[in-house]
Design goal:
The protein is of the alpha+beta class. The protein has 5 helices and 5 strands, in the order H-H-H-H-H-E-E-E-E-E. It has helices at residues 2-18, 30-43, 54-79, 83-113, 132-140; strands at residues 157-165, 170-175, 186-192, 206-214, 217-225. The protein is globular, with a radius of gyration of 25 Å.
Length: 227
């Protein structure tokens, strides 16, 4: 009996030594990547500049928080081997990127319309619900946004391709600041003006691109491989 127990224990030890956990993979470089993720998460939120406008600051801090989570999720996808955790990371990327895109659109609309924060209640008779005619006029006659720069003149911005979605006509870029749009450096999914711009692009590739506001939404108008 004792010999049987010892034999079973030995067989179990040998099987454990030769059979790695399902989904396991080499993680060379993972410690440095996770350290970068931790450093980014420690400073991104803290270093976000505040304006004093509660709405704008809330949006900016929320974007910073979502981008921190995106960065951590990408680290798991780059180095992690557990299928369940990788599925969680992919879900985070899809959900958080959509939220970031919506917040960025709000920021652009706010900036172009020249809106101002109104933290105090508006006296009766002066608020939007009491002035339907003015509300209707505002909706039918929005403030005219600045005319978009011509594609030939829009600046080229350095970026790294993170994802190419040809079916949706989108490309996700980790890019530097876009001066003509007043956007900070970030990772964001953009529609392309011409689907042909996505031809030949691969994740991880260094590129330069131009983005503009066309027909009320952001679009990549030029993109080329970095030299």
């Amino acid at each position: 009996m004792r010999r049987l127990i010892l034999s079973t224990a030995l067989a179990t030890a040998l099987v454990g030594a030769v059979a790695p956990p399902a989904g396991a993979q080499p993680a060379k470089g993972a410690p440095a990547a996770l350290e970068r993720a931790r450093e980014t998460m420690a400073t991104r939120f803290r270093d976000t500049k505040l304006t004093g406008d509660p709405d704008r600051d809330f949006a900016a801090l929320l974007i910073a928080s979502f981008e921190e989570t995106l960065f951590l999720a990408q680290t798991e996808l780059d180095y992690g081997g557990d299928p369940e955790l990788r599925a969680v990371a992919r879900k985070i990327q899809e959900e958080q990127q959509a939220r970031i895109d919506a917040l960025k659109q709000w920021q652009l609309h706010r900036r172009e319309a020249g809106e101002r924060a109104q933290p105090d209640p508006t006296p009766s008779g002066e608020g939007a619900p009491d002035r339907p005619a003015e509300v209707a006029a505002t909706k039918t006659q929005p403030a005219s946004p600045p005319a978009p720069a011509a594609s030939a003149n829009a600046p080229l911005v350095a970026a790294t391709v993170k994802k190419v979605d040809a079916a949706a006509g989108k490309v996700t870029l980790d890019h530097a600041a876009i001066p003509n749009l007043g956007m900070d450096a970030m990772t964001m999914a953009y529609r392309v003006q011409d689907p042909a711009l996505l031809k030949g692009l691969t994740p991880g590739e260094a590129v330069r691109f131009s983005a503009e506001r066309l027909n009320g939404s952001l679009a990549v108008t030029r993109i080329q491989k970095a030299r």
